[in-house]
Amino acid sequence: EPVEMTQLLAALGLLLLGAWLTREGLRAQEAWQARTIARRPALPRKILGSLLTGLGLGLAGFTLAGPLEAALFALLGAGLHLGAFGLDPMQNKGMEGVDEFQTERVARAIDEAEKHLGAMTNAISPLGDRALARRLEAFQSSARALFRTVEDDPRDLTAARRYLSVYLLGARDAATKYAAIAQRGTNPSAKADYLALLDDLEKNFTARTESLLTDNRADLTVEIDVLRERLAREGLRPEE
């Protein structure tokens, strides 16, 4: 029957769309969990995936059996999906009790920086060069260490902004250009240049992270010294 075939194809489409949304929702949740400061996903992908899974199974049940079976399949499908994958993050993270404007700036900057890292992965992955992919991941780890440092102290954003925007944008463009060259054929010189660039980027990002951590420790020392001086002027002495 053409009608039944159409309904079953529609059910399959709903299930595939639900699976895709679920995968994207899991990725968004992993990114949210990995970050110190993060906004909740704008689109609750896993919840939508559950609904589409239920609708797809319900439509298949209606086509092959009847309304009662359709309702049962839909409820079971959506419920089991939610039980297996859970809900999407429903609240912002790490923004309580701090300057909301500053944390929003940090969250936006990190979001853009993560997009640049993702674009680099998307450019290099199709080449099938596992060694190069691992080298890129090593650089990305050093970049994310800088991200976490900025999230821990949003005041560091000004000092790190050039790294999160200009340098990562250049790194993204370099990855795209190298991938275009490599897809035309093996080019050892271009690969060596790109690997050297990754080395330089990793060293500079690591140095920037260490510099920010050192500055933060120095700031803490200054604050402690100032507090000790004030206590001394009040005739009080903090216990050693």
Structure description:
With about 240 residues, the protein is an all-alpha fold. About 80% of the residues lie in helices and about 0% in strands. It has 2 domains: about 80 residues, no CATH class; about 130 residues. The model has no long low-confidence stretch (mean pLDDT about 85).
Supply Rg.
Answer: 25 Å
Poorly predicted ranges: none
Strand content: under 5%
Distance between the termini: 86 Å
Describe the sheet with the most strands.
none
Pattern of helices and strands = HHHHHHH
Number of structural domains = 2
Number of strands: 0
Shape: flat
Relative helix content: over 70%
Structural class: mainly alpha
Count of alpha and pi helical runs? 7
Topology:
Blueprint: H1 2-34, H2 45-64, H3 67-85, H4 100-124, H5 130-152, H6 157-183, H7 188-233
Helix pairs in contact: 1-2, 2-3, 4-5, 4-6, 5-7, 6-7
Observed structural traits:
240 residues, mainly alpha, flat
Give a short summary of the structure.
The chain is 80% helix and 0% strand. The chain is an all-alpha fold and 240 residues long.
